[in-house]
Specification:
The chain is mainly α. The protein is built from six helices and no strands.
Length: 160
């Protein structure tokens, strides 16, 4: 697989990661489809193992999200800026504390947004709880899964 093809797959994965944070965007499916396209274009055993792992992670994520309470983020409580803070915090946490840092990074991003918006620590913590109960946990589960898949893909590309 050429450099341009790998760059295109990486861009689709990045677009899928951003799509997780946007409502009505199938972010996790875009990430999986990019990995599948990569595995089909570069049929090596490691590519197939990454695809199998991505499929398993995606199915587990769907099960976890299905088990979570079926609440939706309300438009008046969240906005795209808050989701951008949460996504940036999650990615930063994923890089700084490999893998497990994504969860506290996501929470820190939401907290920072609410702290800047509301001004007080107690109000920001209460707003963080509200956001996580209203559907933030579903977004976190999907984003974390997509980050794991993207990291596995990047590791496989570097390794091969």
């Amino acid at each position: 697989m050429g450099v341009w093809d790998l760059l295109l797959v990486g861009l689709v994965i990045l677009f899928g990661l951003c799509g997780v944070l946007l409502p009505a965007m199938p972010g996790s499916w875009l990430v999986w489809a990019a990995v599948m396209w990569w595995a089909l274009k570069d049929p090596q055993p490691v590519a197939w193992w990454v695809l199998v792992g991505a499929t398993a992670l995606l199915l587990v994520s769907l099960g976890v999200r299905w088990a979570l309470p079926p609440r939706r983020l309300r438009v008046n409580r969240t906005n795209s800026r808050m989701l951008a803070y949460a996504g940036a915090g999650s990615v930063l946490g994923f890089v700084l504390v490999p893998v497990l840092g994504a969860i506290p990074g996501f929470l820190a991003g939401v907290y920072l947004f609410e702290r800047l918006r509301l001004g007080r620590h107690a109000d920001a913590v209460a707003a963080l709880r509200t956001v996580m109960r209203a559907g933030g946990s579903r977004i976190l589960a999907e984003l974390f899964t997509c980050q794991l898949i993207a990291a596995a893909w990047a590791g496989a590309v570097v390794w091969v």
